[in-house]
Design goal:
A hairpin with a 2-residue loop joins strand 4 and strand 5. Helices cover 56% and strands 19% of the residues. The strands form two sheets. It has a three-stranded antiparallel beta sheet with strand order 3-5-4. A two-stranded antiparallel ribbon has the order 1-2. It is an alpha+beta fold. The protein has one domain: Arc Repressor Mutant, subunit A.
Length: 111
């Protein structure tokens, strides 16, 4: 046991495990949560859980400027939560596998 304070003893094995854990690179995980830290982006993810959608649908339904939506979609793409394909002059966005996993977590959270 390692004494950190007069009233708190913790096994040295636990301290070693914590030391190893804090060395891990968690930037990828942090980027996912950063991407989901905005209500607009959460709404986009939830909407894409219904179907693949064009940016034009978000503009119409959310009454949000195209340039703003493009920014939000870019952040979601950088976090590997959404991907897109081009159909003619339209960009169609969809959730990635990771995006679907995160949507499942979002759906389990209390409002």
């Amino acid at each position: 046991m390692t004494a950190l304070s007069p009233s708190y003893d913790i096994p040295s094995e636990t301290i070693e495990k914590v030391k190893e854990l804090v060395k891990e690179d968690v930037e990828g995980i942090a980027s996912i949560f950063k991407a989901l830290s905005d209500p607009v982006r959460i709404k986009i993810v939830k909407a894409l859980g219904i179907d693949d959608l064009c940016v034009c649908i978000f503009v119409e339904v959310m009454k949000y400027p195209y340039s703003g939506l493009s920014y939000h979609l870019k952040l979601l793409k950088e976090a590997n939560l959404v991907d897109f394909r081009r159909e003619g002059s339209f960009w169609i966005y969809r959730l990635t596998d990771l995006g679907r996993k995160m949507l499942g977590i979002i759906d389990e959270l209390p409002e």
